[in-house]
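Design a sequence for this backbone.
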């Protein structure tokens, strides 16, 4: 009987102890202080502020990229205009007409704004005249343009000339219109 009593007492002590042990093992005590909601709100506000700042920085970077692309396209357009616009001369003449001077003024502005650019001025002629004469005339035309740029303050070291005479016509026709197109100074950028 004593054994039964001891077993009962032991069970009575062990069962509540086990119950207490297992029920409290998983429970975490959370301390709630009045500052916890304020700290959480402060962290949320700080994160929101960072998100807004990051979004604004991304918007500014995108705007800068758009502006840089627009500038690049404008510069490319100006460069292409510089190359594509030729100066035209009268028959057997190397003097610059007023239209040519206006065009060269604009080209001079581009050269001032693009200090790294060096150019080649090509002198061309129509098919009339001897090869030697046309090479000399093409040289005079190219040098006439070069002198104009130097007078504008463009460094002569950035300007080189070459004469193609009648060798590289833009129009192969043998008429007044073709000849007028071929009497020119053409530009290329090194």
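Sequence:
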């Amino acid at each position: 009987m004593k054994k039964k009593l001891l077993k009962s007492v032991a069970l009575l002590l062990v069962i509540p102890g086990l119950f207490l042990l297992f029920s409290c093992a998983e429970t975490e005590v959370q301390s709630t202080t009045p500052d916890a909601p304020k700290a959480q709100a402060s962290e949320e506000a700080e994160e929101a502020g960072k998100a807004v700042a990051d979004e604004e920085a991304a918007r500014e970077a995108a705007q800068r990229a758009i502006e840089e692309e627009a500038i690049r396209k404008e510069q490319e357009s100006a460069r292409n205009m510089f190359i594509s616009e030729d100066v035209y001369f009268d028959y057997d003449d190397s003097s610059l007409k007023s239209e040519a001077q206006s065009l060269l003024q604009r080209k001079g502005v581009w050269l001032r704004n693009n200090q790294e650019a060096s150019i080649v001025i090509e002198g061309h002629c129509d098919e009339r005249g001897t090869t030697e004469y046309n090479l000399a005339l093409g040289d005079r035309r190219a040098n006439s343009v070069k002198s104009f740029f130097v007078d504008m303050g463009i460094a002569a070291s950035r300007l080189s000339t070459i004469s193609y005479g009648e060798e590289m016509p833009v129009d192969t026709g043998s008429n007044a219109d073709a000849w007028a197109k071929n009497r020119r100074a053409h530009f290329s950028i090194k």
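Strands lie at 87-88, 119-124, 159-165, 184-189.
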